[in-house]
Amino acid sequence: MDWHGILQSLLSRVLWELILIVGGGTVIAVVKAKWPRYAPAVLYGLGGAACLAIVCFALTGQPILSEQTRQVTPDNVESFLKPWLDDFQLSTRRFSDPNLIFGLVVTLPNNDPINIGRPHNLDRFLVFRGLITISPEHLTIIEKMDKAETEQLKENLSMELARTKLSYALSDPLKTIMIESRIPITSSLSEDEVIKKIDEIDDVMQLAKVVVISAANKHAASAQRQ
Questions:
Q1: Alpha carbon of 174 to those of 16, 59, 130, 218: distances in Å?
Q2: Dihedral over Cα of 96, 1, 205, 218: its sign
Q3: Where are the alpha helices (H) located in 35-123, listed in sequence order?
Q4: 123: nearest Cα among 158, 78, 174
Q5: Is 129 helix (H, G, I), strand (E, B) or coil?
Q6: Which fold would CATH assign to domain 77-225?
Q7: Would you give per-residue pLDDT tens digits along the chain (226 residues)?
Q8: Cα 146–Cα 203–Cα 103 angle in degrees, nearest 5
Q9: Cα–Cα–Cα angle for 113, 116, 119, rounded to 5 degrees
Q10: What ranges do the domains of the chain cover?
Q11: CA of 76: how far to CAs of 4, 72, 87, 91, in Å?
Q12: How far is residue 126's CA from residue 115's CA, in Å, rounded to a whole number?
C-alpha cells in the first residue's frame, strides 16, 4: 500500500483542521475585542456553520472541505489496476484483444502470466485468466502415455480443478490448461480483492502443475523399470 501517500493525506487533513479551529477562535477573539456588539452574531454564525458541517458529515460521511474519494467504475477501473499491481511489485503490460475493452498481462514472481481483461460482452466484470503451457520435458513424457493413462491424467486434473470452483479448460491433446475467474466492477472494488483473485488463480495453477508433473514422473519411473 502507498503508506507515504496515506500519511501525507492524514497530516494535511489534521493541519487543515487545526488551522480552521485556531483561525475561528482568533476571529472570535478579535471581533470581541474590537467590535463587542458583533461578537454574538459572529459566534452564532460560526456555531451554525459547525452544525451544518456536522449534518453534512452525517448524511454523506465526508467533511465539507474534504477531497472527494474517486470511486471505481467500469470506465476508470484500468487506472486503478496499475497502481494496485505496482504496490505488490507485479510486472504488467498491456495487450490487445478484439474481444476486450482492455487487457493487462501480469507476470508473477514465479514468471507465470495471468491476464486481466474487461470483455465487451461482460463489460461490468474483470476476467482473470491463467494459462499453463506444459513444459517440453513433461510434454514429451505425456505424449508417450497410452490412451488410458492420458485419460486418467485428464480425469485427475478435472477432479482437482472442479474442487476449486474456478472455470477451467484442458486442451486436446493436453498441452495447455486454462484457469479463469471473474469479479464484478463495483464502487467497492479494492486492491485487496484484485490481489486475492490473482493469488487464487496462481494457487490453482500450481495445483494443476503438481498433478501433471506427478503423472509424468510416475510414467517415467514405470518406463524405467520395464
A1: 62, 58, 16, 17
A2: positive
A3: 39-60, 77-87
A4: 78
A5: strand
A6: Yope Regulator; Chain: A, (3.30.1460)
A7: 444 444 555 555 555 555 555 455 566 655 566 667 665 665 555 565 565 556 555 555 555 455 557 899 999 999 999 999 999 999 999 999 999 999 999 999 999 999 999 999 999 999 999 999 999 999 999 999 999 999 999 999 999 999 999 999 999 999 999 999 999 999 999 999 999 999 999 999 999 999 999 999 999 998 887 6
A8: 100
A9: 140
A10: 3-60, 77-225
A11: 24, 6, 18, 20
A12: 10
- Return the half-sphere exposure (C-beta side, CA atoms, 13 A cut-off) of residue 62: 8
Cell 514405470 belongs to residue: 222
- Cβ atoms of 130 and 202 within 8 Å: the answer is yes
Identify which of 126, 132, 133 has the alpha carbon closest to the alpha carbon of residue 197: 126
Q: CA–CA distance from 208 to each of 105, 161, 162 (Å)?
A: 20, 7, 11
Question: What is the reported pTM?
Answer: 0.71
What are the residues whose beta carbons fall under 8 Å from the beta carbon of 99, sequence distance 6 or more? 117, 119, 120, 121
Residue 140: φ, ψ to 5°: -60, -40
Here the cell at position 210 is 503438481
